[in-house]
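Work Package 4 report. The design task specified in the project plan requires that, given a folded chain encoded as C-alpha cells, an amino acid be chosen for each position. We show below one input record used in the internal validation round.
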C-alpha cells in the first residue's frame, strides 16, 4: 500500500479502521473568482464504511459539491474557500499532478446506485 503525499512531500495519515476518510469543511463555491456564492458553508465527514447521500432540489448544488470533492468545478465556477480532506490530505491544495495521483489511489462510487452489491 502506498502512502499519499501532501504538498511539500509530507505523508498523509493512512485511514484508521472506522476513522474519518473524507472531511469537508466550510466549502464555498462562487460564480467566478469574486462573484456571488453558489454553494456555501458545506461541511460533513464520512467515516470508513459509511455511505453518504446528498439530496436536494434541482439546482441546489448537489453536483457542484460532488465535483468539488474531486477538485473540479463547472465552467464559470471557482472553489473560493474550504477544505476537502481525503485521508487527512487537503485535495484543494494539491497541484494538478498531485491531485491526479490522489484520485488514482482512491475509489469512486456510482452516484445512481440504489442497492448494495
Amino acid at each position: 500500500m502506498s502512502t499519499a503525499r501532501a504538498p511539500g512531500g509530507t505523508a498523509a495519515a493512512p485511514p484508521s479502521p472506522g476513522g474519518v476518510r473524507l472531511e469537508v469543511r466550510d466549502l464555498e463555491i462562487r460564480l467566478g473568482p469574486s462573484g456571488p456564492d453558489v454553494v456555501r458553508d458545506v461541511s460533513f465527514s464520512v467515516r470508513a464504511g459509511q455511505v453518504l447521500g446528498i439530496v436536494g432540489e434541482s439546482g441546489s448544488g448537489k453536483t457542484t459539491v460532488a465535483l468539488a470533492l474531486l477538485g473540479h468545478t463547472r465552467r464559470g465556477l471557482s472553489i473560493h474557500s474550504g477544505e476537502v480532506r481525503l485521508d487527512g490530505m487537503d485535495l484543494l491544495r494539491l497541484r494538478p499532478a498531485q491531485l491526479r495521483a490522489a484520485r488514482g489511489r482512491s475509489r469512486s462510487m456510482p452516484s445512481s446506485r440504489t442497492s448494495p452489491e
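The first helix runs from residue 62 to 69. Validation will be extended to a larger panel in the next phase.
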